Amino acid sequence: MKVATIVGARPQFIKASVVSAAFARHGVDERIIHTGQHFDANMSDVFFDELQIPRPHLHLGIGGGTHGQNTGRMIEAIEAALTEMAPDWVLVYGDTDSTLAAAIAASKLHIPLAHVEAGLRSFNKRMPEEINRILTDHCASLLFTPTAAATQTLLTEGMRPEGIVECGDVMLDAALHFGARVAELGQGAARHGLVPGGYVLATVHRQENTDDTARLSAILDGLGQVAQTLPVLLPMHPRTRARIKVAHLFDKLERLCLTEPLGYLDMVGLERDAAVIATDSGGMQKEAFFHKVPCITLRDETEWSELITAGWNTLVPPQNGPMIAAAILAARGRFGEDMAPYGTGDAAEMVVRSLLDATR
Ligand code: UDP
Question: Are the CB atoms for 321 and 50 separated by under 8 Å?
């Protein structure tokens, strides 16, 4: 079986790491195409190195444009690559422009498409990710869902039950595998001069927060207020740094501990040791739960609503700095119910076995 995997952004490298390892165990011929959406060394290379992801067969070098420009250029380049590779499957992850471009290219070439992390919805179509995931799901022949709720969403949208495999969340596989390695290495807060349980780990990168100056300003104000009580570590996404510069918000960073984007092992160590995680990242909301850390999500809605219901995560609409600060401080020591909605950590194995079964 030959599989072309298309990745382009940080969370996709993390998801691909565990699935690529499972492909290798089964002797599958996997060809990775990197679109170039994330291209900085600390947003891309560090993940390939640390997580031992096979080097991409092809690097398309497409990034830096608008959504339309990037997606259009990617469709053209991926179509050419797939025509030459002639894979049995095209495999995509999540909800980025790279995901959508590959879905369109594969479906026009009649190459079966498999979507890992299918069935998620925020029900907010202003998010570019929401459009990407809906369209990708509707192009796919095999839909790998992380939760029962995601499966139900696809059934409600009229998908064929035989095309859905509820495999669990590949990010749980990654959290278990790399979490154990981080624990062995003793990598965590101390590397950053922080005390375990004595700081807030924050990330902000979602377009709806970074590109809206009032929201970005309120988030930085809120984090700055928290920093008067607890250190706040903010690994800064390149988009956030660029927007802070354009909006002249640098003075709001004064109280925060800033770093460049971190490698995954470093990040996992910091997540495990944090008192609270405050984020607009989809992946980090779940990682907070995997590592049993309370989470505040700086958004109006989330795709991972089971974490809200179970009390692990609280949504805070990011327009009001004092409210953000109060929510983060109140979340300390507030743990949710025991539950296991994301499977048992063998999602990658199930993905590969299902693809092999569907190819025979
Ligand atoms: N992450 C990382 N370094 C950082 C920030 C995030 O390794 O400096 C990891 C994080 O642990 C999670 C993933 O990147 O596994 C989340 O990616 P991101 O927030 O960019 O995207 P999203 O999950 O919102 O799609």
Answer: no
Positions marked active-site: 205
- Yes or no: domain 2-169+343-359 corresponds to CATH 3.40.50.150: no
Give start-end residues of each CATH 3.40.50.2000 domain in the chain: 2-169+343-359, 177-330
Angle at which helices 10-25 and 170-185 pack, to 10 degrees? 90
How do beta strands 89-93 and 58-59 pair?
Answer: unpaired
Is residue 233 lining ligand 1, measured as CB closer than 6 Å? no
Atom from ligand 1 closest to the CA of residue 283: 23
Which residue, by CA, sits nearest to atom 23 of ligand 1? Answer: 283
Model confidence over 192-217: pLDDT tens digits? Answer: 999 999 999 999 999 999 999 999 99
**End-to-end C-alpha distance for the chain, whole angstroms:** 9
Looking at the whole model, is its pTM more than 0.70?
Answer: yes
pLDDT tens column, 281-326 = 999 999 999 999 999 999 999 999 999 999 999 999 999 999 999 9
Secondary structure class of 168 (helix, strand, coil) = coil
Quick one: tokens of 21? 């390892």
Closest approach atom of ligand 1 to CA 263: 7
Cβ pair 16, 343 in contact under 8 A: no
**From the CA of 302, how far away is ligand 1's center (Å)?**
16
Residue 203 Cα to ligand 1 middle (Å):
8
CA distance 302 to 120: 9
What CATH number has the domain spanning 177-330? Answer: 3.40.50.2000
Whether the CA torsion 41, 46, 63, 237 is positive or negative: it is negative
Cβ neighbours of residue 35 under 8 Å, at least 6 residues apart? Answer: 6, 7, 8, 60, 62, 63, 70, 74, 77, 78, 97, 98, 101
Residue 54 DSSP class: P
261 Cβ closer than 6 Å to some ligand 1 atom: yes
Strand positions, DSSP E, the chain: 2-7, 29-34, 58-59, 89-93, 113-116, 142-145, 164-166, 200-203, 232-235, 257-259, 276-279, 295-297, 313-315
**CA 43 to centroid of ligand 1, rounded, Å:** 9
Ligand 1 centroid–CA 279 distance in Å is: 10
